[in-house]
Amino acid sequence: MAETINMPKLGFDMAEGLLVRWVKQVGENINKGDILAEIETDKATVEVESHASGVVLQLIVEQGTMVPVNAPIAVIGAAGEKVDAPAATTALSKVESPKSDAAPAPQTQPTPAPTTQTSAPAETVVSGAALSESKGQPSAGPVKASPLAKKIAKDKNVNLASLQGTGPGGRVVRKDVESAIASGQPSAVSRPSAPTSIQPVIVSLDDKVVATTKLRQAIGRRLIESKTTIPHFYVTHEYKMDALMDMRKQINAYLPDNEKVSVNDFILKAVALSLRQFPNLNATIKGTEVIQFGHVNVGVAVTVPGGLMTVVVKDTDQKGLRQISGEVKAMAGRARDGKVKPEDVDGSTFSTSNLGMYDVEDFIAIINPPEAAILAISSAREVPVVENSAVKVGWRMKATISVDHRVSDGAEAAQFMQTLAGFLENPVRMLV
Amino acid sequence: MAKITMREAISQALMEEMDRDPAVFIMGEEVGVWGGTYAVTKGFYDKYGPDRIKDTPIAENAIIGGAIGAAMVGQRPVAELMTINFGFSAMDYIINQAPKLHYMFGGQFKVPMVIRAVGGGGRQLGATHSQTPDAIFAHFPGLKVVSPGTPEDAKGLLKSAIRSDDPVLFIEHATMYQVRGEVPEGEYTIPIGKSKVQRAGTDVTIVTYCKGLELSMKAADELASQGINVEVVDLRTLRPLDMEPVIESFKKTNRAVVVEEGWKSYGVGSEIVSRIYEEAFDYVDAPIIRVAQKEVPLPYNRTLEQAALPQVADIVSAVKEVLK
C-alpha cells in the first residue's frame, strides 16, 4: 500500500517549507530512514527522511516550491503500484509559486540597511532565536475586530489578539484599541515588523547591497519581538576559573584531539545543574502564569553562515561532560553545514552564548523567546587578582545573565549566578 | 427667514418658475379647478388659466406620455401623479421613454420634464396607495430622483428640477405637506445631487431622506437628551447619489443607521450601506443597521399601519444597538 510523505513540521512556528532538492527520483528504491529531499525553512536546510520503504512512485511538488506543512510531497509504495489520485491533487492545489517569499512583503526587496552596525561588544545578538519560535503563542486564528479597530491596530502596531473586545460577542472595537494605546499596555503594543527602517535608506554607488538570508530575517523578527516585549534586566558575575582550567587540562590529557572538552562544555553542565535549583529561570511566561519546564535543555548559540542558530542539549543536567561535548560538536557541525536536524534546534529551555574565543571581557545577550533567560559567557583570561591582600595572577571569566523581569527579579538572578560559581569554581562537583 | 409649510414651499416654487418661464406648465388629475389633491396648486387655475394648468383624464400613461411629447418640443411640463403608485400604470413612459430618449436619439432630443409624485404611507390609504417605491425609480440611469425632507429643500430642489434639461421624478411625502420649516426669502435654488448634513453630531451617523429625515431629527432630539450625539445626513437626491457627506460623516463617527420608509429588501438603505462598506471599510467600527418598513403590504388598519412603518422609537433603538 502506497504511503504519502508530507511536508514535515520542523519547529513550532513553521508554516511552510521550500522544497530545495529531491534526493531521490521517481522509480528509485528507498528505505525507511533514507534521505528523500532537502527542505529549507527560515531556519535551516534540513534533510527529510522517508518513513516508508519501497519505490518512489510520485514526487508531488517540484523543486523550488514552497509547500505548506503537512501537505503531501511524495508517494512511496511497491513498484508498479497505482498512486491514489487525491493525494496528488490536494497537494498541487496548495502549491505556491516557487521562491515566493513567505511574507507578502509589499514590493520590498530585502532592503539593504547598510550602515547601522552595532558597535562590536555592545549587545551581541544571540538567538537560538531563529529556532524554537514561541510555543505559547496562540495560533493565528481570525481575531474578531471591526475593520476600523484592525486598521488602527495595524497603524499603531497593536496586537489585536491581546485585547479584550467590549463590542457585541467580544468584538474588538475602536475604543478597545485606543484605550490599550492610551494605557500603554505592554502586551498590546506589539513588535514592529522586522525589516522596517524608519529613515529612508539612501544607497550610493559606493555602497554594497547585500540581501539578507531567511535566517537573518528570522533572527531580526524574533529579537525585535524579544526586545520590544520582554523587560530585560542583567546581572554580571566574575568567576574564578583556575580550578576549572586545571581540571580541563587534566581531563584533556587523556582524550584524543577530536574529543577534547571545552570550557564551554563545563559551563553548560554547570548551568544545567544550577537551573535545577532555579526552576524559575528555566521557564517561560504565558499570560499570568509562569511555566517552569520539567526538563533542562540548554541551548548553545552557534555561528553559522548567514546568522546564528541555537543547538540544544536535551536534559543537559543529566548528561556527562563528554556526552555534552560530543553532542554539541556534532550539532554545531551540522548547523554550520546547513544540515541541522529538527531535533537539534528544538526545545531549548534556557540559552547560552559564548564569545570566549574572541577575547571578550563582557557582553550581554537578548533573551531567546519564549525562554525567560539567557547567559552571555565571555573569555576566561589570566588577570591580576587580589587574594589575601596580595596581587597574583588568576583565571577569571565574566558572565552576564539577561532575565525576563516578568518572571524573576535581580536577587534571584544574582543567587543563580552565585550557585553557578559554586560549580564553576569547584568543578569536581560536576563530576559526581 | 419665513417659516412656511412644505405645501407652501412647493407651491411657491411652481409659481415662481411659471412666472419666470412661460414654457413651464402643469398637468395632472385635479390640478386645475380643484386645486390639487393636496391643494398644492390652489389658485393656479385662476392665475394661469386652462392653457398652463391642465386637468387630465384619469390615465397616468397619457399624463406622462403627453408630458414627454411636450418636453421634446421645447415645453417644460410639470406632470403630477396623485400618488406615485399610479406611476406603475405609466412605467414604460417613466422608465423606458423619458430617461432614454436623449440617449436613443443621439442627443437630438432633450426631455426637460418634472414628474411630481406623492409617495409614502401613514394616511390609511391601503396597501396599493401607500407605497414608497423610490428605489425602483432610482435604479435606472437617466432619471433623476429627488425627494426632499424640508420645505427649504423642497422649494430649492423643485426649482432646479424644473430648470433641469433631464427628466426628474420629484417625490413628495403624503404626510409632510403640513411640515413647517424656514425658507430663505427671495429667489434661490438648491442643486440636484447634493446630500446635506441636516444636524451635526459626533457619535453616530443617520443617513436618510424625506419622511425618514423628519423621524430621524426627532430621534436625534430624543437621543441627545440621553447624551448621544447624532449626525443626520439627508440624501435629498437618490439619483445622482452624493455619498461624499455620508462618507465624510461616517469616517468621523464610524457607526451608522440608515433610515428609509420603503422596504428593506433591495432598498435605498441597501445601496447606502454597500457604498459605505465599499468606500469606508477601514472606518467601520460596527455593523450598519437599516431601519425600514416591515416586509408586508402596508395594512389599512391604523394600528397595524403604524406598526409596519418605521417609527422614531425604531430609530432610537437602532442607534443604541449600533453604539453597543
Can you walk me through this structure?
The complex is a heterodimer of chains A (432) and B (324). With 432 residues, chain A is α+β, with helices and mostly antiparallel strands. Helix content of chain A is 25%, strand content 25%. Chain A folds into three domains: 3-94, OB fold (Dihydrolipoamide Acetyltransferase, E2P) (Beta Barrel); 136-197 and 210-229, E3-binding domain (Dihydrolipoamide Transferase), CATH 4.10.320.10; 232-430, Chloramphenicol acetyltransferase-like domain (Chloramphenicol Acetyltransferase). Chain A is built from nine helices and 18 strands. In chain A, a hairpin with a 2-residue loop joins β13 and β14. Chain B has two domains: 2-183, Rossmann fold, CATH 3.40.50; 196-322, Rossmann fold, CATH 3.40.50.920. Chain B has twelve helices and 14 strands. Chain B has helices at residues 6-20, 44-48, 60-72, 91-97, 101-104, 134-138, 151-163, 211-224, 244-253, 268-279, 302-308, 312-322, and strands at residues 2-5, 24-28, 53-55, 76-81, 114-119, 144-146, 168-173, 180-183, 196-199, 204-208, 230-234, 237-239, 256-263, 289-293. In chain B, the strands form three sheets. Chain B has a seven-stranded mixed beta sheet, sandwiched between helices. Chain B starts with a strand and ends with a helix. Chain A binds chain B through residues 146-151, 167-168, 171, 173-174, and chain B through 254, 281-286, 324.
Percent of residues in helices of chain A: 10-25%
CATH domain topology of the largest domain in chain A:
Chloramphenicol Acetyltransferase
Dominant shape of chain B: globular
Shape of chain A: globular
Helix/strand/pairing class of chain A, anyone? alpha+beta
* Biggest pleated-sheet summary of chain B: 7 strands, mixed
Succession of helices and strands of chain A: EEEEEEEEHEHHHEHHEEEEHHEEEEH
CATH architecture of the largest domain in chain B: 3-Layer(aba) Sandwich
Radius of gyration of chain B: 19 Å
Broad structural category of chain B? alpha/beta
Strand order of the largest sheet of chain B: 3-2-4-5-7-6-12
| Alpha-carbon Rg of chain A, integer | 25 Å
Number of helices, counting only DSSP H or I runs of 4 residues or more of chain A: 9
